[in-house]
Write a structure and sequence with these properties.
single chain, 431 residues, alpha/beta, TIM Barrel, 2 domains, two-stranded antiparallel sheet, 19 helices
Length: 431
């Protein structure tokens, strides 16, 4: 049975127990939210040695890191190193978005090496396979798409992005809208090209029950991908995006009725003042299903710094109810990320997630900040390192320009807290 089916029967799985321990919650609270579909636990029955991760209502905001080969860079060992760095930096899940080399071999290597949930986008495999077999993506067929989904499920993939909401109706909206950036979703582009060329409905929408059967067999969590997500601020919250979201809301209902775990992906490029609206709209249309936001990026002009624009948007989205942040790296829009980009992207998203968790009232979030402030007051550098989101960078930077005294080298002997402690007659700890 899927986690959703187990929860609805009133039973508690080992995965629910693990999530409850990690979150500091009663396991019955986790079970109820899984049963209601407001929490998902991506845990394919064939992914061994998995550390379960809960995403959704009342849980800490989770962070995903994307890795994967491209047609220009296809080394498996490089991607395995990115996986290690992402997990070491605190990513809760990792998605393999490989489009180059032997993508099945890359996926299996990543799954074997990862104790964290792994996500994929099977339409990449189907589209690339069609190019290799027939010379064009538009020559793939429905069986090719579902064969790729089946391969991913059997290999142990825990959640898959499926662009089921990219329908002929959404394409009609797109044509009438007159967007600046049209479609920026790679999976969405594969499907739109196929649909227009073949004058057919999206097989993932038309044969949604076939998808549900695969998800049920392996307990693969569906992540309904936003093929119509805006790729620029000018396209934010427009008719094609909302058309797709309405369809996804209907599919959330169908998936949950069938016992399949499901979450919904969201934009994209969104101005600050539209983020709350987007989150509330998704939650209303999709029955409170977990919301997985790709950023959102709050400006289009920060190439090289989009991990920062993403963190700004992610913090606001999570504060208003988004549950899952997909990281963005400094190389977004420019190049495939390297090892350093992966680390920077994860940390930036974790900062956003934690900032939102403080506002959400997530257990332990505000207390961690309080403990950091106390450690700073004591000038306890090792405790500050332990509590920081990136202890490695903390220690490296602190050592780089160490002070001869107990304070940091920014203030040295004029450290405000050290001085005030003396004035108040309180002895500061010397570390």
């Amino acid at each position: 049975m899927t986690q959703l089916e187990i929860a609805r029967k009133g039973n508690i799985s080992l995965q629910m127990e693990a999530v409850a321990r990690a979150e500091g919650l009663e396991v019955e609270a986790v079970r109820q939210r899984v049963a209601a579909g407001t929490v998902v636990i991506p845990a394919n029955i064939r992914h061994s040695d998995l550390i379960p991760c809960g995403v959704g209502e009342g849980l800490s905001t989770k962070v995903n890191a994307n890795i994967g080969t491209s047609s220009d860079f296809g080394d498996i060992n490089t991607e395995l190193e990115k996986l290690r760095v992402a997990i070491d930096a605190g990513a809760d899940t990792v998605m393999d978005l490989s489009t180059g080399g032997d993508i099945s071999a890359v996926r299996r290597a990543i799954l074997e090496a990862s104790v964290r949930p792994i996500g994929t986008v099977p339409i990449y495999q189907a589209g690339i396979g069609a190019i290799e077999k027939h010379g064009a993506i538009v020559k793939m067929n429905a069986d090719d798409i579902f064969a790729a989904i089946g391969d991913n499920a059997r290999d142990g993939v825990d959640f898959i992005t499926v662009h089921c909401g990219v329908t002929q109706a959404a394409i009609d909206r797109l044509k009438k809208q007159g967007r600046v950036t049209d479609i920026v979703s790679r999976g969405g582009a594969f499907l739109v090209g196929w649909m227009l060329h073949n004058d057919r409905e999206n097989p993932l929408y038309e044969q949604f029950n076939r998808l549900l059967d695969i998800a049920l067999e392996y307990d693969v969590t569906l992540s309904l991908g936003d093929g119509m997500r805006p790729g620029s601020l000018a396209d934010a919250t427009d008719r094609p995006q909302v058309e797709e979201l309405i369809t996804m809301g209907e599919l959330v209902q169908r998936a949950q009725d069938a016992g399949v775990q499901v979450m919904v992906e969201g934009p994209g490029h969104i101005p600050l003042d539209q983020i709350e609206t987007n989150v509330r709209l998704q939650k209303a249309l999709c029955k409170g299903a977990p919301f997985y936001v790709l950023g959102p990026l709050v400006t289009d002009i920060a190439a090289g710094y989009d991990h920062i624009t993403s963190a700004i948007g992610g913090a606001i989205a999570a504060m208003h109810g988004a549950d899952f942040l997909c990281y963005v790296t400094p190389s977004e829009h420019l190049a495939i990320p390297d090892i350093d980009d992966v680390r920077e992207g994860v940390i930036a998203s974790r900062i956003a997630a934690h900032a939102a968790d403080i506002v959400k009232g997530i257990k332990g979030a505000r207390e961690r900040d309080r403990q950091m402030s106390l450690a700073r007051k004591r000038l306890d550098w090792e405790e500050q390192a332990r509590l920081s989101l990136d202890p490695e960078k903390f220690r490296r930077m602190h050592r780089k320009r160490a002070s001869t005294g107990s304070a940091c080298s920014m203030c040295g002997q004029y450290c405000a807290m050290d001085l005030v402690a003396q004035y108040l007659g309180v002895k500061a700890a010397k570390c």
